[in-house]
Amino acid sequence: MCLIMLCPIAATYEVFLHDAYYKYIPSTNNYYLYSGCSSPDLLKQLFYFMCVCLSLTTVSNCFVFAKLCLFPLTPRNLETEFFFVSFMSSNTLTIGTVLTYGMRSATPGTLLFEVNKILLPVVSDVLSLNQPFYLIFYHKPARKLFFDIIHEVFRCLCCRKPRGIRPVDVTIL
């Protein structure tokens, strides 16, 4: 758990050393985000960090998959579910690494730069949120529990009478 918290902080530590601020450019009538941190240096560090994460994730997924296959008694389809979850997560991490490399090598103002600027936040959000959703959809007990909770929430919200609301007596008015 310490590695999960400390490694991203170490990879992006340079960003925290500088304040980010908005600067108004009158010629374009826009505000731009500026920082004392060099973007190419940050992207280079981030790319190396993501390459290390990708290789560690791939190796650990292979080891865990091999260990799961060696267990004498495993729940049905456990290997398949694990494979799908780790495969999809590795694909998202690979896409993030490729986009980081593209952003690192793109020059500002080019099509590659603009496409990467749009896609990089989306991929980073998917990267952080995909594992729970893959577990929900590929693991049958987790999927059943998730949909049971959603069903109960909607049943409680839709079928209950609101409290504290009394009918208005029209004769008093």
From TrEMBL:
The lineage of its organism: Eukaryota, Metazoa, Ecdysozoa, Nematoda, Chromadorea. Pfam families: Srg. Keywords: Membrane, Transmembrane, Transmembrane helix. GO terms for biological process: sensory perception of chemical stimulus. Its main location: membrane. It is found in: Membrane. It comes from Caenorhabditis briggsae. It comes from the Eukaryota. GO terms for cellular component: membrane. GO terms for molecular function: transmembrane signaling receptor activity. This is Serpentine receptor class gamma. Belongs to the nematode receptor-like protein srg family. InterPro entries: 7TM_GPCR_serpentine_rcpt_Srg (IPR000609). The chain crosses the membrane at residues 46-70, 82-103, 118-137. It is a multi-pass membrane protein.
